[in-house]
Specification:
182 residues, alpha+beta, eight-stranded mixed β-sheet, 8 strands, globular
């Protein structure tokens, strides 16, 4: 896996099996995951078309998952441990349920260095969402997320860590889940 920021876009390239709750989400093998920073007054009638155009502008070949955020990439948080690399952009100006009318999105991208079952990948979305919600409450907010939050969980197929064992569970009581919520 390699990543960099270019033109307000975090580009994560590699060989991934991934699941996404984002705009063009689902479960797929992808070669790129990106998170693009839009302006705070962003309004686009067809976000899927916008993401497709971004992929073309960034010369992304093959399948990909794309996310949008109003958070500037200078505020991107990257955390890494032995099991994963975590990329987070957190804008909280549009809390759910519909309290304000400004854009706000919390995007979480988890790139696993260990093999995950499909169920473990889906479970990691729940664990990441729980961690996000607890973080917001701990910071004194009275909401658990924003209306446009997204999570991508990707297994880096080129990582050599624990390739012989497929992790089946990623809840908060597991090593992976515990690492995720830290």
């Amino acid at each position: 896996m390699k990543y960099h920021i270019e033109n307000n876009t975090l580009l994560i390239k590699g060989n991934f099996e991934a699941i996404s709750t984002g705009i063009n989400g689902g479960m797929s093998k992808v070669s790129c995951i990106f998170n693009h920073s839009v302006t705070s007054d962003f309004e686009y009638k067809d976000p899927i078309e916008y993401v497709v155009n971004l992929a073309q502008l960034n010369d992304i070949k093959g399948k990909y998952f794309g996310l949008l955020t109003a958070v500037d990439m200078t505020n991107l948080c990257i955390e890494e441990n032995e099991n994963m690399t975590l990329f987070v952009t957190a804008g909280i100006t549009h809390p759910s349920p519909f309290k304000l009318k400004n854009i706000g999105t919390i995007n979480i991208i988890i790139v696993s260095k260990i093999a995950l079952s499909k169920g473990a990948m889906a479970s990691a979305i729940i664990t990441a969402t729980e961690a996000k919600s607890l973080c917001l409450l701990d910071l004194g907010f009275d909401f658990l997320g924003t209306t446009t939050d997204a999570v991508v969980v990707a297994e880096d197929k080129t990582s050599s860590k624990n390739r012989d064992t497929i992790t089946q569970y990623t809840g908060s009581y597991t090593e992976f889940g515990s690492d995720l919520i830290k």
